[in-house]
Amino acid sequence: MVDVSAKAVSARLAVAACQVNTTSTVIELLRAGALPKGDALAVARLAGIMGAKRTPDIVPLCHPIALHGVTVDLSLSDSCVQIICTAKTADRTGVEMEALTGAAAAGLALIDMVKAVDPAASIERVRVLRKEGGKTGDWHRPEDRP
Q: What is the pLDDT of residue 135?
C-alpha cells in the first residue's frame, strides 16, 4: 500500500459512470416501478452508496478514507440506464476508486433486479469522468475517449 502520510489533506471529488444495457420492456417496467423484485432504482442507489463506502474491503491496497458525501444518480433512456456516482472527501488520497465502485455496485444491483425479465442485461463503460483536488488538480475525461 502506498504511503500517503506526507501528502496534504485536501478536498477531493470524483465522478464515475457506467451504463446498464437492457430492453425497452425493462425500461418501461423501471419507469412504472413494476419490476417483480420491487423498486430497482432505489435499490441501485443504495447499493451504489454502500459499495462506495466498502471500497477498501473490495479493492486490494485501496486506502480507507472518510467519505463526506456519495450520490448515485440514475437516468433512463430507451434501452439503458446511465449511472453517475459522485464521491467527496477531504483526505490525503483521491476518491476515484470509491466513485467507480459505487457506480459498478449500483449497476450490479440493477442487474440483479432486472435479470428475471432480461437475463442478457449488461454493465458497460465503467469509467471515471472527472476528478478534482489533490496535487494533480482537476482532470476531465477527454471527449475523444469513450
A: 84
